[in-house]
Design goal:
Blueprint (H helix, E strand, L loop, with lengths): L2 H12 L3 H20 L4 E3 L3 E8 L2 E4 L6 E4 L2 E8 L1 H9 L1
Antiparallel strand pairs: 1-2, 2-5, 3-4
Helix pairs in contact: 1-2
Length: 92
C-alpha cells in the first residue's frame, strides 16, 4: 500500500471526501515526522513503535580508493513491529 491507497482506504471507511481524507492522512504523517525530528518516540500499541536511534561516528574507508575516511555520527528512525502485527502477518 502506498499513500494514495491509504487515502482511498480512509475515504471509503469514513465517508469523507477525497480532499478531507488526504488532509487526515497528511496530518497523521506530518505529526509523526515532527515527533521523530524532535527525537520523540511513536508508539501505536499492537502495531509498532518508531524511535530515533543514534549511531556514533567511526572511521570507515572509501570502497573505491581504500583510503580511510571519517563517517560522522547520525540519527535514523528505527521501526519495531508490535506483537499483534507480527502474529497477523505470520498467520496470513
Amino acid at each position: 500500500m502506498n499513500k494514495a491507497g491509504l487515502i482511498e482506504a480512509v475515504r471509503k471507511e469514513t465517508g469523507l471526501s477525497r480532499t478531507k481524507a488526504k488532509d487526515v492522512v497528511e496530518l497523521f504523517l506530518d505529526e509523526m515526522s515532527k515527533a521523530l525530528a524532535s527525537s520523540d518516540r511513536i508508539e501505536i500499541r499492537g502495531f509498532c513503535s518508531i524511535y530515533v536511534k543514534k549511531y556514533k561516528g567511526y572511521m570507515g574507508r572509501n570502497p573505491k580508493t581504500g583510503e580511510p575516511t571519517a563517517v560522522p555520527e547520525k540519527k535514523l528512525p528505527f521501526f519495531k513491529c508490535g506483537k499483534q502485527l507480527k502474529e497477523m502477518v505470520d498467520i496470513g
